[in-house]
Amino acid sequence: MAGIASLQANQNATIEGTISAISAVRDVTTSRGPSQVADATVQDETGTITLTLWGEDTKRYSVGQKIRITDGWVKDFRGKLQISMGRTGKITVQS
């Protein structure tokens, strides 16, 4: 499994890390209608990445949780890498 520091834009990735911060939830309007979004910072021993949380996921996770992101989509947003679930990705909480 890749470390966060080795991720590149426009690829699917599976990573594990710990949520070190979560932004305030923001209300947004997308092409699919109104939704909520929040940014979580996920870190491992190699680096950090922003995890974009949508809808119910904005309430599902908390700082300090160790998570595994399977088949997440990595993209470049304003010069920084972000990972989101895309169409097939999922997040599982590790014990």
Structure description:
- The protein is mainly beta and 95 residues long.
- The radius of gyration is 13 Å and the shape is globular.
- A hairpin with a 4-residue loop joins β3 (33-43) and β4 (48-54).
- The two termini are 18 Å apart.
- It has one domain (4-94): OB fold (Dihydrolipoamide Acetyltransferase, E2P), CATH 2.40.50.
- A five-stranded mixed β-barrel has the order 1-3-4-6-5.
- The longest helix is centred in the middle third of the chain and has 4 residues, at 57-60.
- The chain has one helix and seven strands; from the N terminus they run ββββαβββ.
- The protein has one helix spanning 57-60; strands at 11-22, 26-30, 33-43, 48-54, 66-77, 80-84, 90-94.
